[in-house]
Amino acid sequence: MFKNKHIIVAMIVAPILAVIAYLATDSLVGEKPHKAEAGKSYSLVALPNCRYPSGHCTLKNAEFSIDLKVGQAGVNRMTLSLESKHPLQGVKAALVATEQESGEPADLVATDDTALHWTVDLSGDHSELSRLRLVVAAADSFYYGETGLAFIDYQTSFGEDFRH
């Protein structure tokens, strides 16, 4: 079977051409990273730690990211804490029971002068189907994101708290 030189050359050249075609297509039609422009809005993507009971959630777009932590403030009430590496101009959050619901947004309050730490008390049902929606203003741009509430409880299978 492998005595034919054409088959041997084809088996060597085909994977090389496939990789070259993949890289060429990505460079031609792929989205080029660019700096956030003032007045435009950009979506934030929930990282994998938002899907598991990790105790915190990270929403990210390129180098801009925010970390969320939730504490219980009573029955159907929770305290949302937000931390950013970039100074923020303002933050709004809404807790909604279903994806079709819009929810009433609440303004987060900066806890220090650096505008890196923000907090708010949210009321409403926080079941597994509930969603948390955020809008963040930074450097005259808007960032918006949505995540489920699976991350609000911190659990490990070892029975120890590994948070620092």
Give me a quick take on this structure.
With 164 residues, this protein is of the alpha+beta class.
Secondary-structure blueprint:
Layout: H1 5-29, E1 41-43, E2 45-46, E3 56-61, E4 64-74, E5 77-84, E6 90-96, E7 106-107, E8 109-110, E9 117-123, E10 131-138, E11 141-148
Parallel strand pairs: 1-11
Antiparallel strand pairs: 2-3, 3-4, 4-5, 5-9, 6-7, 6-10, 8-9, 10-11
Description:
The chain is 15% helix and 39% strand. The chain has 164 residues and is an alpha+beta fold. The strands form two sheets. A six-stranded antiparallel sheet has the order 2-3-4-5-9-8, with no helix packed on it. It has a five-stranded mixed sheet with strand order 1-11-10-6-7, with no helix packed on it. The protein is elongated, with a radius of gyration of 23 Å. It has one helix spanning 5-29, and strands at 41-43, 45-46, 56-61, 64-74, 77-84, 90-96, 106-107, 109-110, 117-123, 131-138, 141-148.
